[in-house]
C-alpha cells in the first residue's frame, strides 16, 4: 500500500495551482496483457512518457468494478478494481510508482449515480423495507395513469443518453430517476445516510494515499425536491436542468464534504468538479479560496461553441465567440476563484479536428490551441494523446462505434426519426465521444503499440505516422512543443499567478492576452485561423520571444501565419 502523504507538500496549500494534470482513460491507454483493453499495469509501464512531458498529476478515469455500460461511469463497487483493469494491488503499485516519481494521482469520483448493479440499488429496488430504500429517487406513477405505461412517469424529464429519465421497477412498484442511462440510477443526496456512505468511501481512498478526486457531474447531486416538469425540448422530453444543475442544497453538500472529509486531514487535495451548465458566477462561488469547497470546476461553455442547443446539432465555432468565452471566464474567476483549463477529455471530440485544422495545419493548430490554453490562469489538463495531436476517429459505419451515447443517438435518429443514415454518421464522426476513446498511438505497429491483441475499439489508421515514437525527442514535434509549454509554466511564476488581461488587436482571428506578475508581463499572440493576419505596429514591438510554433526562418514581424502563435516576455 502506498504511503499516504508521499509526494505531497502540506506546507504548500494550493499546490495544484502550479500543476499540470494528465487524464488517463485506462481502457484506451495501454494494454499489458493482450486482451485488447488497457489496464493498470499498462499505465505503470508508460509512466516515463508522462513524467518526461512534465506532468504533475494523473487523473485516472474510473477503474472501479462496473458492468461497463458507460465504460466505468456506472460503478457497482467503489472499493474494488474491475478485473478488466487489474486488481487493487495493481492500483496500489501504480500509486506508489506515481508517488516515487514525485507525481500525484487523483481518482474519478462518480457519486451522482451508481450502477443499477450496485448492491445498494439492488436492495433498494427489491423492497421498500431495506436500509437503502431511500438512497435513490423512487416515485409513484403520475396520478390517474397506468403505472409502467409511457406517459406515466413521475415527471417529463429526459435522460442524457436517450428516452425518459425514469424507469419502472415492477418489483418495487415505483419509478426510479436516472439522469443518464437506465443502468445509472441517481443517488438521493438528501438522505444523510447516503452522504455518509459516500464520505466513508472517500476516506477509504484518501487513506490509501490518493491525492484528490475529479468529481463526475457533481453539480447534479442536489435536486429540487418537487422534481417539477421541465420546459419541452426537441426530443419531446422536458429539460430538468433548471431543477438539478444548481439545486438548492448543492453548496450545503459540498461544504459538508469539505468539513467531513477534507478538513480533518493535513495537507491539501486536488478536487475538481465536473459541472455541465455552470455559469462563471457560480464557478467563482464553488472555487472561492475562502470557502474552499472545490479547487476548480470543469465548465462547458468553451466546448459548446460549435453546438446549437443540443450536442448533435452543429454550428461553426467563431473565433470571436471562443475569445469572448475564454477571456470572460478568466476575468470572472479573477483572483477569487480558480479555472481549470481543458480542450479534451473522454467526452469531447479531439480539439485539433474540432477547433483546429487536422488536415492542412495539423501541427500548427494543435500547438497554437495548446499555447492559448496553457498560458491562461488556471490548471491545465492534457488528455491522453493530445500531446501528440491525436485526431478524431474517422469511423466508417455504426459498427465501429462503442459508446452508449453514440449508439442511443443513432438508434433514435435513424430508427425513430428516420433521419438519413449518412447525415447521422457524419454527425457522429464529428461529435461522438468515441472520437476521444480510440487507442493511444504509441507506435506505428499494427495495434499502435497499444495492444498486441484485438483492440476493443478501432485504432486510428493515422497511427502509421501519428504516434509517440515518431515525436518523442524530435525537435519541432507536437510532443516536444508540449514539453516546452509545460516547462514554461514550471519556470515562470507569471504563468501560474499572473493576472489576466485581454489584448485588443482589432483582428478577429487573433486572440491576444497578457499575464502580469510584478515586473513580468507575458504576452500571447495567437492566430486561430487558416489565413495569415497582419500585425499592427504596436503589436510588433521587439520583446523577448520565449515560445513560438513557427521556425525563425518563417516568422514575419509584420504578420502571423495561419495558426501561428508567439509568446513574449518582458
Ligand atoms: C460525466 C462523464 C461521462 C459520463 C457521465 C455519466 O459527464 O464524464 O463520461 O457518461 O458523466 O456518468
TrEMBL record:
Keywords: Glycosidase, Hydrolase
Gene3D superfamilies: Glycosidases (3.20.20.80), Golgi alpha-mannosidase II (2.60.40.1180), Oligo-1,6-glucosidase, Domain 2 (3.90.400.10)
Family annotation (SMART domains): Aamy
GO molecular function: alpha-amylase activity
Pfam name, any one: Alpha-amylase
Top-level taxon of the source organism: Bacteria
InterPro entries linked: GH (IPR017853), GH13_cat_dom (IPR006047), Glyco_hydro_b (IPR013780), O16G_dom_2 (IPR045857)
GO biological process: oligosaccharide catabolic process
Signal sequence range: none
Residue ranges of domain Glycosyl hydrolase family 13 catalytic in the record: 23-437
Family: Belongs to the glycosyl hydrolase 13 family.
NCBIfam families in alphabetical order: PRK10933.1
Annotated protein name in UniProt: Alpha-glucosidase
